[in-house]
Amino acid sequence: MKPFAYARPADVAEAVRDVAAEPNAVFLAGGTNLVDHLKLGVARPDLVVDVRTLTSGEVTELPGGGLRLGAASTNSAVAADRRVRERYPVLAQALLAGATGQLRNAATTGGNPLQRTRCVYFSDVTTPCNKREPGSGCTAVGGYTRYHAVLGTAAALPDPTAAETCIATHPSDMAVALAALDAQVQVLGPTGERTIPFSELHRLVGDEPSRDTELEHGELITAIDLPPLPAGTRSAYRKVRDRASYAFALVSVAAVVPPDGDVRIALGGVAHKPWRATRAEELLRGAELTDSAVRAAMDAELAAAQPQPGVGGGNGFKIPLVNRTVVATLRELTPEASR
Amino acid sequence: MDAEVTLTVDGTRHQLPVDTRTTLLDLMRERLGNTSPKKGCDHGQCGACTVLLDGQRQLSCLALAVAHDGAEVVTADGLAPAGELHPVQQAFLDSDAFQCGYCTPGQICSAVGVLDEVSRGWPSHATADLTGDVELSHDEVAERMSGNLCRCAAYVNIVPAVQQAGGAQA
What we know:
By secondary structure, chain A is an alpha+beta fold.
């Protein structure tokens, strides 16, 4: 592991200043992803600024009926919070579907959405990877693509030598639920505070595969706000994976069904960011959520999906799988709808 | 680069300078001579290094020692300070819940954490009703212990051991 200086500043303002002043500095919270990357050589910072004890670890009521998750609240504490379980089951379920008890006790609200991809080539410093080493190429194309993207990518078989190529997915379960809930991200940066809609926090690859989010260097998540949901809203998270427990999603679905029928759907395991299925949402607005209506809406959502060829048949299986998973999730949430 | 840390491990307070890169696991094993937590994968995937960190089960291989200055750590060794076995340790013996034993200290610390989490009503992925009571069924234990791998595959006895310890404590 490369040597690094460690700092635990007195408050968040100082932490932000410290990181902003050092181009090769990183924030440390629960460390479940960063410490592993330090060992692997994926992350090679000169300065590690520990913020774990600087932000709130509490879940608090917001005026108007929402909840504020302090950035230092752990994934297990949020999943166990009775208000979260009762009002935002999709979030509790997503958190409980992720990682293990030990990891959830360390991982935080602020850190979870900022975890890096689990693309095996990103973690392997001996292989080219545009996300880890900009401009080095992409080893995943035509390789082991089972966990890779089918949405938001350029072409069926992108050029593995091009600097903009990356077919990685975002691995967080929590983030998929937060996207469906229209959560708001509270951020403190060198120039002050700002609020970012959760669905705009993460990026598609564009021409900068190394950037996962829209955060600037030195910007720190201080809290994530959950907006109030109309009374009678139902929500659920459904995750499909290779093992029954402790595995990343092949695909996952977060669905929120308010009583007015404006269903919200977010997909995990399919893109570089948590994917809001806005096309399907539009088609389902005001419609009865019959299996055939949902299936057709998801067909439209997935019309532009690009399966990636690769070892073991590639990842084309995700396209019908995610469609069926949305149908199953909404069926469970609306048992009264005619099928 | 060094930093001074103070840690209480199994009831004994230690103050020592550590390289900032040192994990809690390496500090305990290499500096304090406490080899109860085991190094399996060293990447947070196997659970062999599980300890109770400030009362909660965590992975000591993914915790930087400097980031836990002042913390209280209990290893499987520290669960039996006076030589009397912890109920979870006794349950593992009674159920023959291990073979080679390498993963066992991590399994035991994890199980102690599981029983505490259950007693506080924390749900899991296996809990059908998120807001209802938790019963220590086979599926609940298997899900909650999924972060502790046993390459001997002693799971068939580990699950009943955790259930026994849970019943004995209730």
